[in-house]
UniProtKB/TrEMBL annotation:
Note on cofactor: Binds 1 FAD per subunit.
Protein name, entry field: proline dehydrogenase
Gene: fadM_2
InterPro entries (UniProt xref): FAD-linked_oxidoreductase-like, PRODH_bac_arc, Proline_DH_dom, Proline_oxidase
Proline dehydrogenase domain location: 48-303
Amino acid sequence: MIDALSKAAFGTLAGSTTLKRLASRYGMRGDGGFARRFVAGEHIDEAIAAARSVEAQGLSQTLDLLGESVASEVEASAATNAYLEMIPRIAEAAIGRNISIKLTQLGLDQSPDIAGRHLGTILARAHDEAFFVRVDMENSPYVEDTLTLVEAAWHEGLTNVGVVLQSALKRSESDLDRVLALGMRVRLVKGAYKEPASLAWQSKADVDAAYVRMLERLLAQGRFPAIATHDPAMIAETCRIAGTSGLAASAFEFQMLYGVRRDLQAALMRDGFGVRVYIPYGREWFPYFMRRLGERPANVGFVLKSLVRD
Ligand code: FAD
């Protein structure tokens, strides 16, 4: 039955406040909390410790303060301030200066103006401290506003920003034209959200085929593209294209999620590729965690085992 639960089912469960309340009691408890495999902790100190451990293995990292779909402008300002506090903590810790953010965390549901103002504030501070900021891509209703806001920041000279494109969305191949024309850095992903057939490829074969088409263009024309996937077939395709076109391994990087395919992260690094690990932390870990379960229902077994151990 567990295997039958899909991305869509986990997406629905992610909205359940009862489940969220139950999960928050156990998910981050001590070292055995079941969410700790995918989330570094609830506090910046834990995220920095995870980043140090990742860097000690020769990998690089990006830190994400979890949070999305805030309910008010006050919450969006609080999230913005939390990012502004995070920047000097990372600088003091002398770990890599790379962060990831979501625009619904900065007030995109309240208005694009609010999110744009908050994004500009974070990017300006990040720019002064030589940070790179990746704006994650959320589900389809937010794609156009996300691209527009990131492009606006870029045109204001805040070029320390990069965007994410999802191969599952049918529009992404033309969005790639837009961002390639600017010279903006792109993280290529398959897409974590359940989307309607009118907007998104539904089969793995179609999502993968679009991924490869976008990959070919990014490796040929993109600026330091991030190939974010755990799929060995997509990784092999990247290595094949790079090999046949004589592209140096230093011209792009692979990215993977904290706690996912650590064996593959290490193997790619040993083969001379750059690998960046996306390290999420913070109290708002529940929706992120549910998306990870939805991607691989076998992860549910891992959660159940850790609960039984308790
Ligand atoms: P899949 O075909 O889903 O998986 C391939 C194989 O990878 C699986 O067979 C399994 O072995 C392994 N695997 C994949 N997921 C898991 C998991 N959760 N647990 C254990 N094993 C797993 N999505 C967005 O929509 N917006 C973003 O901004 C975004 N940012 C991302 C940043 C990074 C660094 C990464 C790695 C992913 C990001 N994603 C984002 C998620 C992405 O869209 C996919 O949902 C996710 O990466 C799974 O797709 P896949 O390419 O790994 O391939």
